[in-house]
Automatic annotation (TrEMBL):
Family matches, as PANTHER family: CALCIUM-TRANSPORTING ATPASE (PTHR42861)
Protein's cellular compartments: Cell membrane
A Pfam family hit: E1-E2_ATPase
Biological processes, Gene Ontology terms: inorganic cation transmembrane transport
Primary subcellular site in the record, as a coarse category: membrane
A GO molecular-function descriptor: metal ion binding
UniProt entry tagged with the keyword Lyase: no
Species of the source: marine sediment metagenome
Protein name (Swiss-Prot/TrEMBL): P-type ATPase A domain-containing protein
Transferase among keywords: no
Transmembrane annotation, as ranges: 6-28, 176-197, 203-232
Annotated ranges, domain P-type ATPase A: 44-156
Length: 277
């Protein structure tokens, strides 16, 4: 855009700046939607919980729970912390948020090997899981980001997205063009000096060569195409966090995903009601 302004190609400069602004707006909008999705994941923790402290039962905000608190859990409760069960009564827990298993798991207080995988730790309940049947008393052992669901949130936030094929190809093309441009500039300088041309004129010729050699419209076109694809997917309730991910997704031939809790809610929903009379 700067080069276009220097050589007085104001229309080209305006188009490039407009596309950059569009890219920023679309990116901000999608980032906001993605962050809302992340917040929804964090809200899987119950806002308040019943605990026993100093022989008294209290209802406190989940954020105030600390390891060692005695949790009182009943049917319908969302577990507020990772906890070790000490008393159970016909306890069943839905752990679909962690394991993807839609069937409620029976829990007990018997010892389990420390090396047992998460799905087989029957004497533990985990943050975000739901008590579907029975009641229990448990000791909180992990809270906040130290919990299993907290580790998932942390991992999602720390993921470094690799360069997409489109980004890699554009980067290679840019490097080739840069090398070509530098070579042309060196040649122009040598020829200009030999012919006694002034430095200002050599500079203007080099800028003109850059404008003609660099496809400044390519990023704009690519951005517009990806933005259109992102808009279409957003209308179909598909959240795209990164604009360049649209191109990668378009190259995919097969997508493997967990079903329960990801593509489905794991909840029974009444669609129609028939009554007689």
């Amino acid at each position: 855009a700067i080069i276009s302004i220097v050589v007085e190609h104001f229309i080209d400069a305006g188009v490039i700046l407009g596309v950059l602004l569009l890219n920023a707006v679309v990116g901000f909008t999608q980032e906001t939607r993605a962050e809302k999705a992340m917040e929804a994941l964090k809200r899987m923790v119950a806002p308040r919980a019943s605990v026993r402290r100093e022989s008294k039962v209290r209802e406190i905000p989940t954020r105030e729970i600390v390891p060692g608190d005695i949790l009182l859990l009943e049917t319908g409760d969302r577990v507020p912390a990772d906890a070790r069960l000490i008393e159970v009564s016909n306890l069943k827990v839905n752990e679909a948020t962690l394991t993807g298993e839609s069937i409620a798991v029976d829990k007990h207080t018997k010892p389990v090997s420390e090396e047992a995988p998460l799905a087989e730790r029957k004497n533990m309940v985990y943050t975000g899981t739901i008590i579907t049947y029975g009641r229990a008393t448990a000791v909180a052992v992990k809270t906040g980001l130290s919990t299993e669901i907290g580790k998932i949130v942390t991992t999602i936030q720390e993921v470094e997205t690799p360069k997409t094929p489109l980004q890699q190809n554009i980067r290679k093309l840019s490097q080739y063009i840069l090398v070509l441009f530098l070579g042309i500039c060196a040649l122009l300088i040598v020829v200009g000096v030999l012919k006694g041309i002034g430095w200002l004129e050599i500079f203007l010729v080099a800028v003109a060569a850059a404008v003609s050699a660099i496809p400044e419209g390519l990023p704009a076109v690519v951005t517009v195409v990806l933005a259109i694809g992102m808009h279409i997917m957003a209308n179909r309730n598909a959240i795209i966090r990164k604009l360049v991910a649209v191109e990668t997704l378009g190259s995919a031939t097969a997508i493997c995903s967990d079903k329960t809790g990801t593509l489905t809610l794991n909840e029974m929903t009444a669609r129609r009601l028939y009554v007689s009379g």
